[in-house]
Structure formats: structure tokens, C-alpha cells
Specification:
By secondary structure, the chain is α/β, with parallel strands linked by helices. It has two domains: 6-183 and 211-217, Rossmann fold, CATH 3.40.50.720; 223-421, Rossmann fold, CATH 3.40.50.150. Helix content is 41%, strand content 17%. It contains 17 helices and 17 strands. The strands form three sheets. The chain has a seven-stranded mixed beta sheet, with helices on both faces. A six-stranded mixed beta sheet has the order 3-4-2-1-5-6, sandwiched between helices. Strand 16 (405-409) and strand 17 form a beta hairpin. Helix 1 packs antiparallel against helix 3 and helix 9 packs antiparallel against helix 10 (198-213). The two termini are 36 Å apart.
Amino acid sequence: MIPLKPSSAAIMTREVLKNSAPLVMRLNLHTLSAQDILLQALGLYRKNPLFCVPERALDIFARKSGETHFILLGTKDFAAVFISIVAGKGRVLHVVDDFQSPKGGLFHGISLITSARLVEMVAKDPDIIAINCCRFDHSRRFFETLCQKHDIVFLNHEQAVRMMGLNDVVDHRVTDWAPVISARFEEFEVLQRRFSDPYSAETLAGLLAFHLTCNPEYHLNISRPYSSLYFRSGLFCLTDHEKLVDCGASIGESTTALIGITRGRFSHSWMIEPDRFNVETLRKLIRSHAGSAIEEKLSLHPVAVGATEAEAPFHHQGGHSGSIAMSDPTAKLEKVLLRPIDNIIDDIPTFIKMDIEGFELPALKGGIKAIQTGKPKLAVSAYHRATDLLDLPAYIDGIAPGYQLGLRHHTEDRWDSCLYFY
């Protein structure tokens, strides 16, 4: 769906908001089921994609367009993303961080200020739009309260991307999902019926409502703790002979969790990780178990997983941020080796876990033999692309029918939704 021009959208939004305020605010909805809320959100989005963007923000952006001034709240991932894509759409004046600003310095080339300085600036220029870039709920609440108290126009990341029509330039991991949800909604309804437990269907409704309304309250309502990711979904139990294929081993969190939850009673973990910074961390993890039975159960494979043997440019960033440069395969980056799972492992796995920044589908294609032969449990991240929730189950159902399917969301933000095949 093509976004409406801000000028006409602002006018239409005045009409739509008359009926959508309870849904946008998530108030007075006690008589509606999660499915009813989702259907209402879809209807409002199809009538006007900008129904959830505050009217004052639309008016400012319509008047100032590329001259709009923004101040970003928080020095996290969303702030870095916005700075990298805002050119031509407006100007970022400052980034607010009360802890870092007294130390001076810059955040991605932008000066840091305090929240008190933000209030002073907006008092002089009420057309400044603040964008809440925080990931965690307590930080988001702090800035929301501040902006409401001082009558500061503010958006969250999702609202900003939608208002400014940034899907063509933003990283695929933080795009606006609503166009895909609207276009393929019947497929999402089929997926909802495909789930094996009611909580998965409710989780899907909450996630889709969040992406349609840009209101994190909907995913907070169904979120589970991060510590429950992969092994504590409540959908299945582990055995004392698990053989884990840890795709995107990162800094070893998943393998460490497996060691902890089984108290060391598992068979093997193939830790597969291409980021050179993380590889050293994983080597330290193995060394920490030197001389124990666990050391013999761990193997490190410094490659990326893919459908075939190949090479690809890779962003080596350490932690959870490293990724294959899929949008630009000719990028002048250090290349990593891509290898299929079936060519890496030397045994039939019982569990395959994936969190590889949107490369999950090619990786599954490279593990077809392991999946069809051993029917392992699968925990596959499904939040990197708007199409993941549809395309990943469709592929698995096509190559290995018979799995039960579940869905859980494991954080306070838009990331870490995971599909479980068991």
C-alpha cells in the first residue's frame, strides 16, 4: 500500500481518530477479544495507514517536510538506525541521554543533550518532534511521561518509519510490517489456525496488532521473559541427550542456557558463528570448560549457514548485531564462508536453533537432510522480516509435514518472536 502524502493524511486522520482512539491507546477495550482488536486495527489501517500517528506530528511534517527537526530519545539501536536514514526527510538536532551527555562526545556524529535541555529547546520551538528510540519498557515510559508533561510532540520508531515512508531505505529488520500484514492477512489467518495451542494464536494476534497500530502495549500483553527463549517455551521438554545445532551462536547464550537447564546432561552442541569478534568469545567459553566432560561436547564452527557452499560479505560487529550484507552482496566487506548445516554437522541433531538476522530461510534449506531424517525440534527466529511468520512454516510444512507449531514472543520490544516446531 502506498503511504498517503502527509498533507492529505493529516486531514483524513482527524476523521479516523474519532473512532480509533480506544484502539490506539489500548483503553476501554475490555469487551473485545484479541482477534476483534486485530480486525479493527486492520480495518483502520486499510482506511488510512497513518491512523495511529498523532495529528500534531502529521501537521508539522506536512508543513516542514525535509526541514523537520527531530530529537532522538535514547542511544540505542533505533536511534542509530534513524540517524542513518533521515537524510532528505528532516534533520536530527540532538540525541537525549542523561547518563552519557555530561561526558560529552557524540552518538553517530550527533551531539548528546540532557532531557532538561530537550524541554528548554521545545519551549522555544514547539515544532520539534521527539522520537522515542528506547527498546525497554521502563525507558520508553520515562520519555513518554516527560513528553506528555511538557506537551512535546513525540513518536516511537514504528510511527516515525510509517509517517515518513522509510521502508525503502530502512534496514529489513526494523521496517513497517503493516503493508505485508494487510496484503497477506488471509495467510496470517490460516497460520493462526495452524498453531497447536491457543496461546500461540493469541500471541500472533498481539504481534500483528502491534505492527498495525505501532503500539507496543499489544506485544507487551503477550510477551514472555527473555530467559524463556528457545528452551523454556512451555511447548516441549528437553531430554538428557540433546544434540543442538546452534545457528548464530553469538556470544554463547544458547549453548550456555542448554548447559544450565540440563545441568550438563546433553550430547553435543555445534556452535556455528561467523562474526570474528564472537568467535573469540566462544573459544573462551570452550576453554572455561577445559578438562570437564562438557568440553568434549562443544564444537566451534566459524562459518555462516546457508543453502549452499558460497561466500558472502559480512558485518562483523560482535554481540547480536553481526549480519550478512544481503542487500548488497558486492559490498566491500570481509567475506565469510557459507556452509549448509548438512555439511557442518556429523550426527543427526535433536534440536536446531536459529537467530541469524533474516537468513533463516536459506539456512533451513541447507539443513533439509537433518530435518527430514531426524525431525529435530526447531526454534527459529521469525521477527527479522515481515514475511518470516508466513514463509518459514510454509517451507517446513513442505519438506517435513507433521510438526506441531507454536509461537512465543520473548522481549519487551519488537524483537525475539520465535516459531517452535516440535
